[in-house]
Specification:
Blueprint: H1 3-6, H2 18-26, E1 36-37, H3 48-65, E2 67-69, H4 73-81, E3 85-87, E4 90-92, H5 97-102, E5 108-111, E6 120-123, E7 126-129, E8 137-140, E9 144-147, H6 150-162, H7 184-195, E10 200-201, H8 207-221, H9 223-228, E11 232-238, E12 243-244, H10 246-257, E13 261-269, H11 278-299, E14 305-308, E15 310-314, E16 321-322, H12 326-342, E17 346-347, H13 360-375, E18 380-381, E19 387-388, E20 393-395, H14 396-413, H15 420-423, H16 425-431, H17 441-450, H18 462-467, H19 473-487, H20 495-510
Parallel strand pairs: 2-12, 7-18, 8-20, 10-11, 11-13, 13-14, 13-15, 14-17
Antiparallel strand pairs: 1-7, 2-4, 3-4, 5-6, 8-9, 15-16, 19-20
């Protein structure tokens, strides 16, 4: 755990006068599950020999081929200062140097939420679930596929806040195209900060927007608290193959310097941006991650990071990305083994699918990805609900279907109890041959918690189901969306803090003209 996570946190900024306390007393209370803590072993597909080969080959890639840090002369100077060879924009890293630099990255850290009960620990045996990130389109059964708006974004934040099995509010849950590009990050952050009290992600689309994210957090949490604690996670994508662009590295520099977490993640489409083989892709993934994490530690030793792996294969007939495939599962699993050997938290998997609708294809592909993520030791699962159409669409019905199914991950991760109650010998003795367990004492004592139950699916007999309209899963999910939004109540927030955030956003928006480019 990082030093910042272990020390007693600084006192937060003002958390409430009388108005805030009155709001808290009147707030609707609902259950949110704690971070998953695995009680089951990780599945490990790769042998020690395979892992050794990948690590050796990745070091060779860094030393002989190198990585490009484009349009970032300061980054090149930083690499020179630690002993890398720099030619033009190409950085060649001697064997062992990147791994040595990575050694200061914490294996576990706490991301603080404005509601301390919703803090999450990232790393170790923990799995934190966060929603879909980045789609420009949204879809629902009523309105179909359309460009996302800020109203859609706010609706997703509310759904994430109300969803029992989600631990995290996420980041760009969808891209609100009705707000100027240079200002939409302000509205998205306001939504996360005011409509939810779960942890959230900062902006990475421009270094100045990362700085805005820091400054808004200083208003929300208090400047001293942010200086001493991690309150944001960010997604820093690498331009695979082997390229680090100035925009993403500039955002990483801001977050690392302020001790805020970064997911350093190659963006891999196998066969297009990485080799078609599992071993070759894992070699490139590890080389890119080593360089990215090492760079974060050059900026600030001890800055919290997460090793990311976003991997999909490609359909060689159409060129479209494919999801939930065996090869993606093998890469997800192998990267988890490499992350544990590196000693950093791991991000991968999600509700990935290529389907255009929340249908059987979406369910199969999503299930394959979610379950492999659990078994592969993922610590932070971005895109865990709502993903559709290869990430182009955030779907409201699929969001609640996926969020509901995340409950199965929680239950599987618990493992199998072996205590006296779980052994159920008293029940077996009581019922004996030929009886039934419905009325026995053990069943009566345990039936409320014995089985996980979906909050969306229909378990009624056929006749009742038919009488109620023969509703399919998408229809049931539409009802679930409506119910959650109808019962939503915003978590309490000190009116003074809200006013300061609103003033900050207004000032920032007024400082420059709108840009949609």
């Amino acid at each position: 755990m990082s030093d910042a996570a272990q020390k007693a946190p600084a006192r937060r900024g003002r958390g409430g006068g009388g108005a805030a306390r009155r709001a808290e007393r009147s707030a609707v209370s609902f259950e949110t599950a704690k971070t998953i803590e695995r009680k089951i072993p990780n599945l490990e597909m790769l042998s020690e020999e395979a892992l050794d080969i990948i690590e050796a080959n990745a070091e060779t890639v860094l030393e002989e081929i190198g990585v490009a840090f484009v349009d970032n002369p300061e980054a090149l100077e930083r690499w020179k200062s630690v002993g890398a060879e720099v030619t033009g924009e190409r950085v060649r890293i001697p064997k062992g140097l990147a791994r040595k630099l990575c050694a200061t990255a914490p294996s576990t850290f706490v991301q603080h939420a404005r509601n301390p009960e919703r803090n999450v620990t990232i790393g170790g045996d923990n799995l934190v679930l966060a929603p879909v990130y980045g789609p420009p389109f949204v879809r629902d059964a009523e309105g179909g596929r359309r460009y996302a708006t800020i109203a859609d974004f706010e609706k997703f934040v509310k759904l994430a806040y109300m969803s029992k099995w989600l631990h995290h509010s996420g980041g760009t849950v969808c891209e609100p195209t009705d707000v100027p590009v240079n200002k939409r990050h302000l509205d998205m952050l306001m939504a996360h900060m005011t409509l939810s009290d779960k942890p959230f992600m900062g902006s990475v689309t421009e270094p100045s927007r990362a700085k805005d994210s820091i400054e808004m957090c200083e208003i929300l949490f208090g400047k001293e608290f942010v200086a001493d604690n991690t309150v944001m996670t960010s997604l820093i994508n690498i331009n695979s193959p082997l390229t680090f662009d100035q925009t993403m590295m500039g955002a990483l520099e801001v977050y690392a310097a302020h001790n805020q977490a970064a997911i350093i993640s190659p963006f891999i489409v196998g066969g297009a941006m990485a080799p078609v083989s599992v071993m070759g892709t894992l070699t490139q993934v590890l080389a890119e991650v080593l360089a990215g994490i090492a760079y974060s530690q050059i900026i600030r030793p001890g800055a919290p990071v997460i090793m990311g792996t976003f991997v999909t294969s490609i359909d060689m007939n159409s060129g479209a990305p494919t999801f939930g495939t065996p090869e993606a599962a093998q890469i997800t699993n192998g990267a988890g083994q490499l992350a544990r050997r590196l000693g950093v938290p791991y991000r991968s998997a999600g509700s990935f699918c290529g389907s255009k609708l929340p249908d059987a294809q979406a369910a199969y592909e999503t299930s394959n990805s979610l379950n492999m993520g659990l078994l592969s030791g993922v610590n932070f699962m971005l895109h865990s609900c709502g993903w559709l159409e290869g990430g182009l669409v955030a779907d409201f019905e699929k969001f609640v279907l996926d969020a509901d199914q995340l409950g199965t991950l929680h239950h599987i991760a618990k493992g199998v109890e072996i205590d006296e109650n779980a052994q159920a010998m008293d029940a077996i003795r009581e019922v004996g041959p030929g009886g039934h367990y419905l009325g026995c004492a053990h069943t009566q004592a345990n039936f409320k918690t014995a089985f996980w139950r979906s909050e969306v699916f229909d378990y009624k007999p056929f006749e009742t189901w038919e009488e109620e309209g023969a509703r399919d899963s998408q229809t049931l999910a539409s009802g679930r969306v409506a119910k959650l939004i109808e019962t939503y109540v915003a978590p309490p927030l000190d009116p003074e803090i809200r006013a300061k955030l609103e003033a900050y956003v207004a000032e920032k928006k007024a400082a420059e003209p709108d840009s949609f480019m």
